[in-house]
Sequence to fold (152 residues):
Amino acid sequence: MLKFFVRLYARVFLGLIGSFYLPHYGVSVLIVKRIFPRFAWAQTFGDTILVREDLARFSSSGPRTFCETFAHELVHVEQYRRLGTIRFFLFYLLSSLRAFLSGRDYYMENELEREAYQLQSKYCEEHVKKHLEEVISEIEVVMMSSNGGKRS
Fold:
């Protein structure tokens, strides 16, 4: 059910460009034109990762940044799996609200974000690098098909 709504959200509001599935992570990746909030490069809902188009274009020229960003989102996938969708959303919302009400940054002081930032380098080294070329290749296929077969 969540996958359906995420795909609908991506298509209607974010400008869905294309998608692919990564079986070794058990995640779907949707390439989109924009993400809210605007400062985000990527966003995760359950086992679906939304990747902003400009990060996707950057994936082969800046693989370290892409690796860490993708790894960060994989940590969120694990958090969703550990907490479940409703508990993840509630925990995320309450953690952001608690930080905001105490005068701290609602994003950087969110407990789930702090965990993802702490683990992203480790995930990049231990998980993402093994399949990074495949992920970048999949992104390039999606980006080329959205450009009528021309390299972006």
